[in-house]
């Protein structure tokens, strides 16, 4: 896997926010986006910036990993818990509470997040989502130029403009909202 990374822009209440602003201004953060939008790469970046560890929700629930107390807790793939046992969410919130993290960041598919999960976080962390103590952030799709940079990094000998033009002719440019598609142009 490549170390190449483009910093992401996120939306909080419709306002663009950088990764740095996100982690400096908010304590409990829920990152929502659909599969392939870059949640895992974003969480790894945030964990590095915070000096924390990127962990998958299932690993925490199954006690395969144990977060250190008071360290930032960065949890990926919360949505995978929904497919196994709904009670796993309560287990995960308990692990998070016991860790007493300096900061909590959780990623989930937007289509799987239910506002009722905010209540569990509010009960555990004493936070209230209506005063933005629990922050919901959505990943913004890459701009045309960011897509070009990512494509060119992986395929320096290919023309992004030609690739994009081909997709325009077939009305398929929306596939590029998933950054993983930029890494596999032969699929088009």
Give your account of this protein's structure:
This is NACHT domain-containing protein. InterPro entries: P-loop_NTPase. With 188 residues, the protein is an alpha/beta fold. It folds into two domains: 10-139, 3-Layer(aba) Sandwich (Rossmann fold); 144-182, no CATH class. 39% of the residues lie in helices and 18% in strands. The protein contains eight helices and seven strands; from the N terminus they run ββαβαβαβααβαβαα. The chain has helices at 19-25, 39-50, 57-61, 79-84, 87-99, 116-125, 144-154, 160-169, and strands at residues 9-12, 15-18, 28-33, 53-56, 73-76, 104-109, 134-139. A seven-stranded mixed sheet has the order 2-1-7-3-6-5-4. Helix 5 runs parallel beside helix 6. The longest helix is centred in the middle third of the chain and has 13 residues, at 87-99. The two termini are 22 Å apart. The model has no long low-confidence stretch (mean pLDDT 85).
Features of this protein?
single chain, 188 residues, 2 domains, 7 strands, P-loop_NTPase, NACHT domain-containing protein
Outline:
This protein is an alpha/beta fold. The protein has helices at residues 19-25, 39-50, 57-61, 79-84, 87-99, 116-125, 144-154, 160-169, and strands spanning 9-12, 15-18, 28-33, 53-56, 73-76, 104-109, 134-139.
| Order of helical and strand elements | EEHEHEHEHHEHEHH
Head-to-tail CA distance between termini: 22 Å
What's the helix count?
8
Runs in which pLDDT lies below 50 for 5 or more consecutive residues are none
Q: How many whole angstroms does the radius of gyration measure?
A: 18 Å
Helix share, percent: 25-40%
Percentage beta strand: 15-25%
Assign the CATH superfamily of the largest domain.
P-loop containing nucleotide triphosphate hydrolases
Count every beta strand, where a strand is a DSSP E run of 2 or more residues. 7
* Main sheet properties: 7 strands, mixed
> Mean pLDDT, rounded to whole units?
85
| Domain module count | 2
- What structural class should be given to the helix and strand makeup? alpha/beta
- Architecture of the largest domain in CATH? 3-Layer(aba) Sandwich
The first-level CATH class of the largest domain is given as Alpha Beta
CATH topology descriptor of the largest domain:
Rossmann fold
Protein name: NACHT domain-containing protein
